[in-house]
Amino acid sequence: MADLKMWFFASFLIILPIFVEARVSRNDICKSNTLAVYKLRMDTHWSNETFPKQYPLYRPAAQFSRLLGMVHDPSYVLWRNGTEAKQEIRMVAEKGVGELLEQRQGVQDVFAAPPVVRGVGSTETIFYSDGKHHLVSVISKIVPSPDWFVGLDSYELCSNGRWISNVSVQVGPFDAGTDNGFTFTAPDWPSEPTSPIIAITSQHPDHPANSFYYPELEALPPLATFHITRERIYRATDGLKGSKRRRTKLARTNPVIVPLPNVIGKVTPDGHRHISPHVKRVHRKSSRQAVDCVLGHWSSWSSCSASCGVGFEVRTRKLTKPPKFGGSCSREMQQKRWCGGHTKCIERFFNW
After folding, report:
1. What are the subcellular locations of this protein (predicted)?
2. Could you list the residue range(s) of the whole structural domain that residue 270 is in?
């Protein structure tokens, strides 16, 4: 008995790591039925010590507007270096205000984070990404500035077919190309025509009045760092997979020996009765074909279990006729899929 217990314990230790490893590996894959929840934190590094030139101390002091972001597929671009800024990007880059971007084709989630009210600080939020929408783009205005911002353009969350666990990305300032000002507090001087979005470097634009112009530096210190951390992965199953279809073969025609009782035979001509011996008759079972079960129609999908954030919706069906004679039957009586998003969790407008 002691040996049996030791064998069972050893078997458990061998099996458990294999099960856990398989589970982690499966959930890490960027499949269409997975939903990854990420935390995004923006740390800002705009200090008087790091960027002493024309550092804004008041009216307004150095700060960053509310962080605005989108999760989307490759067909959608929020902003991109070298392209013209969209109207909503122009509003954020110039004014720091604007209407939150509504969901549109190619966009899965829209989210926002509170402003950073000083040059050095932090803000964070969460967002959702699925297997079809695995790019994240964000933007936050540098305040004060003509039309400068920091952000991420289409950052890939699915690397080598798996959801990234965590990453930190350092960024510098960008110029939206919609205003001609060179300094943080320059008056509104619209660009006509507008210029493409460009990265601001220590030597470009090379005008001496440019507030980020540090020709003695090879590169500007990072103005902000985006930390993306995976919080959880939801796996929206479509119900349990039915067991492998099994059909019972036609019952074999097994011969069965059936003994018959003694019977009194006919009277023979000599007046004697003839007793018939036991008679053996071959009887064959009739073949019965396996009959599968019958399932009802799927019900409508239930309402989402969460009004804000990620939830699930469910539909069910019933067994109307059980299987017969060894027929098969699917165990898929319930299906579940994820629903919801971050859009309904935030206000419609934002201000810095």
Report:
1. Secreted, Extracellular space, Extracellular matrix
2. 258-283
